[in-house]
Amino acid sequence: MVSGPVGFCLILLGTVLVFHTVAAGGATTEKGVTYDGRSLIIDGQRKLLFSGSIHYPRSTPEMWPSLIKKTKEGGIDVIQTYVFWNLHEPKLGQYDFSGRNDLVKFIKEIRSQGLYVCLRIGPFIEAEWNYGGLPFWLRDVPGMVYRTDNEPFKFHMQQFTSKIANLMKSEGLYASQGGPIILSQIENEYGNVEAAFREKGASYVKWAGQMAVGLKTGVPWIMCKQPDAPDPVINTCNGMRCGETFPGPNSPNKPKMWTEDWTSFFQVYGSEPYIRSAEDIAFHAALFVAKNGSYINYYMYHGGTNFGRTSSSYFITGYYDQAPLDEYGLLRQPKYGHLKELHAAIKSSANPLLQGKQTILSLGPMQQAYVFEDPSSGCVAFLVNNDATKVIQMKFRNNAYSLRPKSIGILQNCKTLIYETAKVSVAKNIRVTTPVQVFNDPDKWEVFRETIPTFSGASLKKNVLLEHTYLTKDKTDYLWYTSRFKPDSPCAKPSLYIESSGHVVHVFVNNALAGSGHGSRDIRVVKLQVPVSLVNGQNNISILSGMVGLPDSGAYMERKSYGLTKVQISCGGTKTIDLSGSQWGYSVGLLGEKVKLHQWRNLQRVKWSTNNAGLIKNRPLAWYKTTFDGPKGDGPVGLNMGSMGKGEIWVNGESIGRYWVSFLTPSGHPSQSIYHIPRAFLKQFGNLLVVLEEEGGDPLGISLNTISVVGSNQAQSQSQFS
């Protein structure tokens, strides 16, 4: 389906389809942002816009100017970002817009560099972000059901959405006020779950659209992947191939927009990175424009870093590292350069694209020409070769053109081939990590080991296995389940069997680690059976349940439960004792977390061990600390954690995220080994490094590295990481 403005006319003539676009109401001199069936109209001018997603909390304020500058130089017109509810309202009614959360500062920096903003308020955002951006306190609101026609949820959603809209108004940031925000989004990919809520899903969509429009921001609202978006909200496409899959907006009065053109794909622990080629991205972007698309956003243009505990379930700390600007903000070539050339080629013919008459010609069984022609602004043609195996010779207006397999050629003035999506002229670059310090001196490390709690020391005891997040409230990844067991008869070859809907379990019997297990994004229940050593008397059983982020999507998220669901002791297969209904003690979090051991001022609150290499290596539930000087220069810096297992890292009190290098991909490699330390976190001298290791690793193998990019020919003799 090809969509057009009001009054489009369809003429079928042999193999030629002619679409004559007539702007609703003609040209306008109205200030601000409006739209019709062809495009957004900003200050009276039609706009064909390329946008790039950059999420402000996934980088630092010190990085924002450079990221935005590089994005603009890549031919991008708009920066698109989500708004992160659980960052801004971590407690009900208490707001945080400081540091990486300074949304206003981020938008003002975009404005200072002359770009527009698409503000995706949500406030549910998914985004591979912890809990999809919802603050966890929502779950404890009586009667709460997320993302449906539920009064408690609608109340808090409207409160936060209004808070953000009013903040933007107070700073004069909407285009209707002369600011850079030209679009806002309400909800996010709700079409994926709407059916689960039946009639309440449809009424919620209508309410959300009306609520958003009622905020009177003066700019259009959008809903992505939402075919039933109520007027005047524009429904948009997300995906990799919206030129092929998107049937178009649900009204001929709305423009055709692509809010997420995935430049790569998210990555979870245990998986390989998804590599999407520059050629494929360019092909589908060009095809979308050829089919009357007028807004394309690359998701992500810069992915950044999931600092702290902000990533969703099992997602790695680096986010969309394969984007045109990588996790560190370095150019990823040829993707960056090839798309920059595409943007320039399309913008060189923006006038005929937006003002001209569209004609679609068949040039072969798998070949077409999309032609836009206007007497005053000229002509542009998109020649499409959908054959993925053959170079095709195409004739168009008495000229011959050779197109590579699965390629689109752009003809300026309908004659000169100025760009071909499958022809990459930009040289590939390689990312290089250069070690500048290896932390291999045991005398410079100190270690503190967590005490394994026991049932007798628990302040909370219940005759049931309680749900993990019911107790943790997502303030920590960790919950201790403790019990005790005294065999009433000899137990031959004892083993402990555990089932958990959490992500990780570490089993200790009488203070000794008996075994560990974990799930994955695809394996939702951890099942672990480990041999154990029991004494004749009382045995202490201590099980640490761990989460690696909360889910970011799905219906009825408030009903999901985590943590231990079954605990049994088996005696050589002849007898099974079910401990699930026994008395259990509970302790939330780790001692090191409670005393904030990652901060300078709290280091003396525990006793550290020193000068013993034997105490350093392969110790589960250990905290390590050392100091280091910042590398010279101003380029990116990362820690290589390849010698460790699983845990979290802090530099000068700032968490640079979870690490999990022991969870290997099918090819036998960690999903992520290098962890980004923003330069803003570093001092010139005496930086504090604190590492929490769950499983047991070797900190003497950790190294500090600088990160750079070089041409592929220069990288042959250097250490590579990509």
Automatic annotation (TrEMBL):
InterPro entries, sorted: BetaGal_gal-bd, Galactose-bd-like_sf, GH, GHD, Gly_Hdrlase_35_cat, Glyco_hydro_35_CS, Glycoside_Hdrlase_35
Keyword Signal: yes
Domain Beta-galactosidase beta-sandwich per the UniProt entry, residue ranges: 368-424
Enzyme Commission code(s) on record: 3.2.1.23
Gene Ontology terms describing biological process: carbohydrate metabolic process
A matching Pfam family: BetaGal_gal-bd
Family: Belongs to the glycosyl hydrolase 35 family.
Organism (species): Thlaspi arvense (Field penny-cress)
Name recorded for this polypeptide: Beta-galactosidase
Superkingdom of source: Eukaryota
Gene3D superfamilies in UniProt: Galactose-binding domain-like, Glycosidases
Keyword Lyase: no
